[in-house]
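Example record

One chain of 151 residues, shown exactly as stored in the release files.
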Amino acid sequence: MTPKTGFIARTLQTNGIVALLVLIFGSFYFGFYSTLSVFTGIIWGMVNLYFLALLIRSSLRPEGADMATALILILIKFPLLYFSAYLMITSGFFNPLLLLTGFTTTRFLYTDYGRRYGFNGDRKGWSPGRGEFQRAPQSYYFHQSAFCSPL
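Predicted structure tokens for this chain:
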């Protein structure tokens, strides 16, 4: 059972690449244990996103929710995954701040990826040199009637 949504699959692939780059280059610059904290946080975020996608796909279906699968995923995701996050944060092995940085990396990447490329991956609304980086007309920023009323 895998999430068949292309957006989630692309986000997980991007997170995997980022996690490996963080592990390789971060160990040289920040030390192995600090980088391992961020890497573990990224992997935990990927597992969380994976189970969340499975839970949503089994719960929100046109033919009705698959209650058995949704219940199993709820029993796996919430107690086990979040208890493991609690143990990682409270253990002395991982730096809690760097671990939380890894947790939020996944959210940052899928939010940025979805904003840039659209949830279907068609780059809808993104055009280099126009659109995103083009300055809006002056009337968009400053409406004269709002600030300059005639006396």
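Notes: The longest helix spans residues 32-59.
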